[in-house]
Amino acid sequence: MNRRVRTAISDLLTSWEIEPMDESKEDARGDALVDQLCYLGATLRDRVRDALHIRVKRAMAVVCSGFSYDMELVSHGFVTDISKTDAENEERLHALIDDAEAPGERLAKLFEPDVLPPETSSGTGEGGEDRAVD
To answer: Are 33 and 5 in contact (CB under 8 A)?
Structure first.
């Protein structure tokens, strides 16, 4: 089992192009797998957060490149209409989200290569069943 976990961690590190940790000290303690998983989780969280921030900024630039918007106002999220009730504003928000679904999906696909690593073969087969490992 430890070998399979090490292989899975190694595959993840490789697919995300993350330098592996120096395991020599952790191996002696027996905490190498736990330390590697913590390191991997923290590194991935940082990368995804950074990519999210970069892409949100670029998405705002895309929107503002075709329209005249106050980016400071847009940065606060949904703008309510003060002449409407909360329920009406909520309904308007959901309608806008529905309208943005298809264009948002197209824009998100443009950002995927910068956020996600290339797809690689994992240690699982079809349907999530484990493949045999030597």
So the answer is: yes
Q: Which positions ≥6 away from 6 have C-beta within 8 Å?
A: 33, 36
Count of all residues that appear for the chain in the document: 134
With residue 119 as reference, give the H or E element that holds it.
Answer: none
Q: Is the CB of residue 12 less than 8 Å from the CB of residue 126?
A: no
Tell me the C-alpha distance between 37 and 35, whole Å: 5
Amino acid residing at 125 = G
- Model confidence pLDDT, tens digit, residues 90-125: 998 889 888 888 888 888 888 788 777 766 655 444
d(CA 39, CA 97): 36
How far separated are the first and last CA of the chain, in Å rounded?
Answer: 11
The tokens describing 41, both together, are: 């989780």
Regarding pTM above 0.70, the answer is no
Residue with tokens 């940065």: 75
Q: If 0-12 CB within 10 Å is exposed, 13-18 middle and 19+ buried, where does residue 33 land?
A: middle
